């Protein structure tokens, strides 16, 4: 987690795109009509598409979901896939997205307290 004067950025290694898309669609504050910026090896440049129209495809290299909130979430194919949350996401969204996109079954009380402390620094 990196904190800045106006926002924070949380990044972690994650599982595949399918888990990210399902988790993004289930997050509070992310409507079905939310737009996503998509980069695929089969198209030139990035496209803007509704989140609900996306499927997990091998050609997809990057997806950034832009809900009507003060935060965004993204998935990027690297040597291991990476998920990022940027802006001022609610702590609950951080926990839900992390649990849904990794093998981490839950957050400990200490981890919850640490995230709340970091969020309060803003």
Detailed description of the structure:
- With 122 residues, the protein is of the alpha+beta class.
- It has one domain.
- The protein has helices at residues 17-26, 91-101, 109-120, and strands at residues 2-3, 8-13, 35-40, 46-50, 60-66, 71-76, 82-87.
- A 7-stranded antiparallel beta sheet has the order 1-2-7-6-5-3-4, with helices on one face.
- Helix 1 runs antiparallel to helix 2.
- It is globular, with a radius of gyration of 14 Å.
- The two termini are 13 Å apart.
- The model has no long low-confidence stretch (mean pLDDT 86).
Strand order of the largest sheet: 1-2-7-6-5-3-4
Radius of gyration, in angstroms, nearest whole number:
14 Å
The helix tally amounts to 3
Residues in helices, as a percent range: 25-40%
The fraction of residues in strands falls at 25-35%
Judged by helices, strands and strand pairing, the structural class is alpha+beta
Please summarize the sheet with the most strands.
7 strands, antiparallel
Low-confidence runs: none
The H-and-E topology, N to C, reads as EEHEEEEEHH
Total beta strands: 7
How many domains, as an integer? 1
Q: Report, as a whole number of angstroms, the end-to-end distance.
A: 13 Å
What is the typical, i.e. mean, pLDDT?
Answer: 86
Shape: globular
